[in-house]
Amino acid sequence: MNGNMQSEKPDVIEAPGRIIQVPTSDRRVRYGTVGTGLDLGRLVWPKDYHIFSSQAVSVHEMNSQLPGRPNSTKELGPAGGVRKNVLRTHPVEVLLIDGVENQEWRKWVEAVRSEERPRIILWFESSRRIEQDREGPFSKSVRKKMQLCGYRSCSWFLKAEDYGSALVQDRVAMVYIRNNGQGNLPTKPTPMGLPARAMSNCFTDASRSASKGILHGTGIRVPRKKFSTMPSGEANQKPAYL
């Protein structure tokens, strides 16, 4: 294919607005988030109980990245400075982790009793971590240490564009379930078959819906809600999906 033919194709195709139904229940989830700053988890579950957030940047910087974000019960700062007994003082059912090394948050799990540990831990990393054997998601050492903490695990390879993202991005999700010897491990969310989104609106409700679907195979369910893919606010004078 020559250069002229390639230039005639649009880089990004924006789809019309639509309503996405997410199957849920009325249960409210107690959850904590750990990450490098953006902390989209609090947008995924705005009516659930966001007990704490541990982010690598200041609250002021987080608010400037995504205006209108709700506050968590406790803003703890970077994971490296959080006290080991955080899961005892701020108990959660679900721990959502994005881009933070296993040893940074595993010490929280190891420091508390089994019944105080989260039922579910979701650890998201770049797909490049697959080949990192020392402390990456597929490390034998990490797997054994999480087993000693009482967790079964499975891994998912996810393509962001399959869940409505404007970015072509591969992610690895490690799913840890506190081992009670019952039930099957959750399966990967089914790709949503949504059309591409415009790059000016990367944070769509479609990607939020995919995150909600993650917990359905784990026994924890979240409230029913209709998500609109129409913009609901502005950030830096541009439409934003909040």
Q: How does this structure look, described?
A:
By secondary structure, the chain is of the alpha/beta class. It has one domain (25-240): Rossmann fold (3-Layer(aba) Sandwich), CATH 3.40.50.150. It has seven helices and eleven strands. The strands form three sheets. A seven-stranded mixed beta sheet has the order 4-3-2-5-6-8-7, with helices on one face. The chain is globular. The N and C termini lie far apart (39 Å). The model is unreliable at 1-7, 203-214, 216-236 and 238-242 (pLDDT under 50).
Do you know the CATH topology? Rossmann fold
The profile of the biggest β sheet is:
7 strands, mixed
Percent in helix: 10-25%
Mean pLDDT: 74
Kindly, what is the distance between the CA atoms of the first and last residues, rounded to a whole number of angstroms?
A: 39 Å
**Domain module tally:** 1
Structural class designation: alpha/beta
What are the secondary-structure elements, in order, as H or E? HEEHEHEHEHEHEEHEEE
Overall shape? globular
The total of helices stands at 7
CATH C-level class: Alpha Beta
Radius of gyration equals 19 Å
**Contiguous uncertain segments of 5+ residues:** 1-7, 203-214, 216-236, 238-242
CATH architecture: 3-Layer(aba) Sandwich
Strand line-up of the largest beta sheet? 4-3-2-5-6-8-7
Content of β-strand: 15-25%
CATH superfamily: Vaccinia Virus protein VP39
* DSSP, total strands: 11
List the main descriptive attributes of the protein structure presented here.
242 residues; alpha/beta; Rossmann fold; seven-stranded mixed β-sheet; 7 helices; 19% helix; globular; disordered N terminus; disordered C terminus
